[in-house]
Specification:
heterodimer, A: alpha+beta, 4-stranded antiparallel sheet, 4 helices, 4 strands, B: alpha/beta, Mannitol-specific EII, Chain A, 6-stranded mixed sheet, globular
Chain lengths: 102, 152
């Protein structure tokens, strides 16, 4: 399996920025992928799989973030995260809240 | 703004009675209300609104911490209550682990900048492993107050 590298730049457009619920959603999506994913705001780089680090980016509305994925599913991860940001983190019930957990 | 400007020291519960999320949120809202920090807001309505937001998306950020929050009309400054549970509470956290420390933040709707500032201060401290560990281990109001003062 070849290692892929994928990158994108997004603009945070929801009113609250990447604060806390959007950050949790972002990390939730990032965790579905095996790739290493980082998010950078130009001054610091956070692990996209850590809520604690993501909240430290202080990404407010209008912030531009660079997302970089490295690993076997890098392109898919970037596409999913891009979509989440583009949809302004539209809140969706988590599967665990609508289905009985097995 | 400092952590001690946000946390209401008389709204610290070192051992929450509730074993579940909704009860814990209610306890924390009620203590802020009893301390006169919620103006004319009705605690029951506020509790329901916070729980509804939690149902939409959890503020259980993992590592044993949850940060339920809401913006409301009728208060001037962000104010937080702190609750601790030694047994842990299911907050539907990202990491699926129980929550031992709950920081409940109520912010003024008309001043979103103050809300963001308060959240950033909370994040900055919660990001510190020691701060989280000390809060989780604290057993009295005095200990929690001291941890917060030391952090500032």
């Amino acid at each position: 399996m070849s290692e892929q590298v994928a990158e994108t730049e997004v603009e945070i457009q929801n009113e609250e920025g990447l604060h806390l619920r959007p950050a949790v959603q972002f990390v939730d999506v990032a965790n579905r992928y095996r790739s290493t994913i980082t998010v950078s705001n130009g001054t610091m780089t956070a692990d996209a799989k850590s809520v604690m680090e993501m909240t430290m980016l202080a990404a407010t509305c209008g912030s531009r973030l660079k997302i970089r994925a490295c690993g076997p599913d890098a392109a898919d991860a970037i596409a999913a995260l891009e979509e989440l940001v583009a949809k302004n983190f539209a809140l969706q019930p988590k599967p665990s809240q609508t289905q009985k957990e097995g | 703004m400092k952590l001690s400007d946000i946390v209401c020291f008389s709204a610290i519960i070192p051992e929450l009675e509730s074993k579940d999320r909704n009860g814990a949120v209610r306890e924390l809202v009620e203590i802020l209300y009893r301390e006169g920090r919620l103006g004319s807001l009705e605690p029951e309505k506020l509790t329901k609104a916070i729980i509804q937001r939690e149902n939409e998306a959890s503020t259980g950020m993992g590592k044993g911490v949850a940060l339920p929050h809401i913006k409301v009309d009728g208060i001037d400054e962000p104010v937080a209550a702190v609750g601790r549970s030694s047994k842990g509470i299911d907050f539907r956290s990202l990491d699926k682990q129980p929550v031992y420390t709950i920081l409940l933040l109520i912010s003024p709707k008309e001043n979103p900048d103050k809300h963001l500032q308060a959240m950033e201060i909370l994040f900055r401290h919660l990001n510190q492993d020691d701060f989280r560990r000390f809060l989780r281990q604290a057993q009295t109001v005095e200990e929690i107050v001291e941890i917060i003062r030391d952090a500032d």
